[in-house]
Write a structure and sequence with these properties.
Elements (H helix, E strand, L loop, with lengths): L3 H26 L5 E5 L3 E6 L3 E2 L2 E11 L10 E12 L5 H16 L4 E4 L4 H9 L7 H4 L12 E4 H4 L1
Parallel strand pairs: 5-6
Antiparallel strand pairs: 1-2, 2-4, 3-4, 4-5, 6-7
Length: about 160
Amino acid sequence: MLCESITLKYEDIIKNICNKLDNLSMEILDIDANFTYYNEDDYYIIHNKNKSYGNNRLDLNFRLYFNMYEDFGKKDFLYAYILWFSVNPKKIGIGTKIISKIIDILKTLTDIEFIIIHPKDKEIKNFWIKNNFTEYTNKISSDKRVMVNTRRILSYYIKENQ
């Protein structure tokens, strides 16, 4: 288990991410999303409790995995794994705008190396590819630090895209 001072450092980072995501959802979709989090052994889960207001909808659920193989203080988190992302209205650029801002938030507040997702169908896969996620996964597939199934994933490298 993490020592208390490290846990508090992580908690501050996660609370800041949730606050910025709340501001983002209000700014773009006029939704008081009420982002919250909880901790598992290897990661934090971040998600919004309020999903919609009127016709506007945002549903985001992702994990931030700890970098368990580095000394604490060097890097806080290794990667983000988006479990679910849905937005309404669709096909007018709102999803792209939100994903871009989420990436900026994670770049600013964490030292993650990459973001991954398992797209469920071709339309969803095309959305993520349009937003600079790639199918090239050899680097992730061979990375022993990755704790999720790496088959059929798309990835976005933070370090390579800065």
